[in-house]
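User: Can you predict the 3D structure for this chain?
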Amino acid sequence: MKKLGRFSIGVGDRFGHQGEAQIAALELTEKAGVVVVPVWNKSNREHTLIGTEPAQTRQAADAAVAARNWKHQYFLDADHVGLKTVDRFIDACDFFTLDVADDIGQPAEAADIDAFVARWKHLVGTLTIPGLSEAFTITEATLRQVAGTYLRAAKEAGKIYRHIAAKKDPATFVVEVSMDETMQPQTPLEMFLILAALSEEKIPVQTVAPKFSGKFLKGIDYVGSVERFAAEFEADVRVVAHAAKLFGLPETLKLSVHSGSDKFSLYPVMRSVLQKTGAGVHLKTAGTTWLEELIGLAAAGGDGLAMAKKVYADAIARMDELTKPYATVVEIDKTKLPTPAEVSGWTSDQYAHALRHVQSNPAYNLHFRQVLHVAFKLAGEMGTSYTDMLKKYRSVIGANVTENLYERHLKPLFVGA
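Assistant: Here is the predicted structure, written as structure tokens:
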């Protein structure tokens, strides 16, 4: 099995031009004493929206690694794939995020539920997880309830994994199972029993992405109780470690936090738990890099600033279309958005300060940021006129990408303030 390092980070790069700048941030992390594995992630939806293929993402990642002489692991993630979409990723990718959220809550076969209950009936009673003060009570009804909610999803993960494994050597890729894009968070006890179900499917899962309480909106900070998240995160970390041993899952199994990017308020509590437990984590930051490209273009001034302004004007004109695929993970107050006419008169600094995620800056506008987070399709439609601009202003954009990834993500989570 190809083992994923203890700490890893999903680094989206929509247009494949910022790999070197991202590795530069990881080099700073390494100099601070921590190796974090980059995982370039791009979903079928993202490829479709901007007309790219996984082979192009692979080419960009390989080129960046070679250019920076990165000596550690790196991966390419087929992000949020299912049976209908995975085939286009199999050749290029060595990390597969199996998305089974749509199957959660769908009824499993009665015989399958009965078999699950019978197989795990020996768990009935009190479950004590090392490091957790409160024990869990498991009844036969608990087993049946969890199977009724999650067993079909686990079996679907098994189908996707076996489909990939039939076409690609299982020793050459990493498997993640994602359950975050659903309505209700999974409790730690449900997570424990979900992992039991995944072990039945013989999936060598190395990262599992649950849904936590609170809101993980695109490109902005966490909305919810940080204290509650901290308790959930630690409980899940400890449950995952115990389940891995008990169910014969890979020893590298760890939590994956699909952050929607920029959950800065959570990084200190996550770091505390990781230090206390010795656990690993996978953090997915997704679209942060695309926004740093816009910030860099704005900062460049001239035609770069003009292009950034055009993206916003077009995004406002097509906002319903752009936000529809992300309806559950954006909350935009249109009354707090500047008009395109207003933005057209902005300086480089005004645009950058409104978009850059520095919450202490009074010019920062989280609604402006969310609109642009989901507007990358517009840049894709610009084709070479956009990518040529990325090349023209490579240095200023790259500096923003590196600073953002290191100072706002890698450093607070993995290195410390």
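The longest helix spans residues 140-165. The first strand starts at residue 7 and ends at 10.
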